[in-house]
Design goal:
The structure holds 2 protein chains of 2 kinds. By secondary structure, chain A is mostly helical. Chain A is built from 7 helices and 3 strands. In chain A, helix 1 runs antiparallel to helix 2 and helix 2 packs antiparallel against helix 3. The relative contact order of chain B is 0.10. The chains are: A mainly alpha, B mainly alpha. Strand 3 of chain A pairs antiparallel with strand 1 of chain B.
């Protein structure tokens, strides 16, 4: 269990380092996923070094606390990563669900029309579409939009998932 | 390396992966029949189903791989809790990273709407007739009403029971925002 705790502590340290990286080496308006992967990889390397050099080797007398659960530590470490990245992204990207909940909480009871004024075309529709254009997933020509080659792979994966799950995409 | 030690490591990881596999399989089987209002309730139900499957696999593997290490009740419970924690993070990651974006990402929906007409372009007005802010709001309201986080009484919406998971995500995001001085983008 000592190794699990160590891997968890290293992951928390990687989160702090990444957030400090975002704070001081900022690229405005961009999610910094790559820098996190690099920091997390260094974190895992430090785990390997630490467990190989510092931790005592296991013996039955050491009990469960010293079991070398390296595979469990690795799987847990990798499972933490997408969870953190989604939480990190949700801190940056404004969500309509959050907008609805906080508007209702702060102003409720509210009417449908009041909620409709919060979820605007500009904020949650055209802004997202423009971001897709900006990042090269969609080409804009006058008032028309066309998917770019860059987005085709993602769309094929989505269609395959749609077939497997058997329900239409939400949005 | 002592083989029995490897077995315990595999038992913990294997039962967590098996639990997650049951969770994903149940999700893929059941969610095709669900309406938006029932999504959150059923995520919790299949989470419990996965946890039960994980416990069964953990117990089964313990019988298949008898170890020389004597695990007392607390140690055995500790190993199972670790497996449960791993399963929780794996299933959470699946919901947040795969199903969540599929069910609620505006960008992915926009991309699929354009993909349906590919390689032809789609006019902005046409796109708005297929998918628009009213749809976005209605989907969210149905999910929130289904999970009792928002209540609709005589056409007026008020807060219901805000889920712990939502609060955890919200407050963790706020902490990240503060530490990283992150700014909200659209």
């Amino acid at each position: 269990m000592l190794r699990i705790v160590t891997a968890s502590i290293i992951f928390v340290a990687a989160i702090f380092l990444h957030l400090l990286w975002c704070r001081y080496v900022r690229k405005p308006g961009r999610l910094q996923f790559q820098s996190f992967f690099v920091i997390a990889a260094f974190g895992w390397m430090s785990y390997i070094v630490l467990t190989a050099r510092v931790f005592p080797s296991w013996s039955p007398a050491g009990g469960i606390g010293r079991l070398p659960l390296n595979l469990s530590a690795l799987v847990l470490y990798v499972s933490f990563m997408p969870v953190y990245l989604i939480l990190y992204a949700s801190a940056i990207i404004d969500s309509p669900t959050r907008t609805v909940i906080f508007f209702v909480k702060e102003n409720g009871p509210v009417t449908y029309e009041q909620l409709r004024d919060q979820v605007t075309e500009q904020k949650f529709f055209s802004a997202r579409l423009n971001k897709l254009v900006e990042h090269g997933y969609v080409d804009k020509n006058g008032d028309s939009y066309r998917l770019s080659g860059r987005a085709l792979g993602t769309c094929r994966i989505l269609k395959a998932y749609q077939k497997i799950i058997g329900r239409n995409i939400g949005g | 390396m002592n083989l029995t030690v490897v077995n315990i490591d595999w038992m913990i990881t294997g039962s967590a992966i098996a639990a997650c596999a049951v969770f994903v399989a149940a999700h893929l089987l059941i969610f095709r029949f669900l309406t938006l209002r029932k999504i959150l309730t059923w995520i919790m139900r299949i989470y419990v189903l996965g946890a039960a499957a994980g416990a069964a696999v953990f117990a089964g593997l313990s019988l298949v791989f008898p170890t020389e290490i004597k695990l007392d009740v607390f140690s055995g419970a500790g190993c199972f809790l670790l497996s449960l924690a791993m399963y929780t993070f794996m299933s959470f990651a699946y919901i947040l990273c795969v199903f969540g974006p599929y069910e609620s990402s505006i960008r992915l929906r926009l991309m699929l709407e354009l993909y349906d007409d590919y390689p032809e372009p789609v006019a902005y007005s046409d796109l708005l007739t297929r998918y628009n802010p009213r749809w976005i709001l209605d989907c969210r309201l149905q999910r929130l009403i289904g999970s009792s986080e928002v209540v609709n009484e005589n056409g007026l919406y008020r807060t219901g029971r805000i889920k712990l998971a939502f609060l955890l995500i919200e407050y963790t995001s706020r902490i990240f925002k503060k530490i990283g001085n992150l700014r909200t983008a659209e």
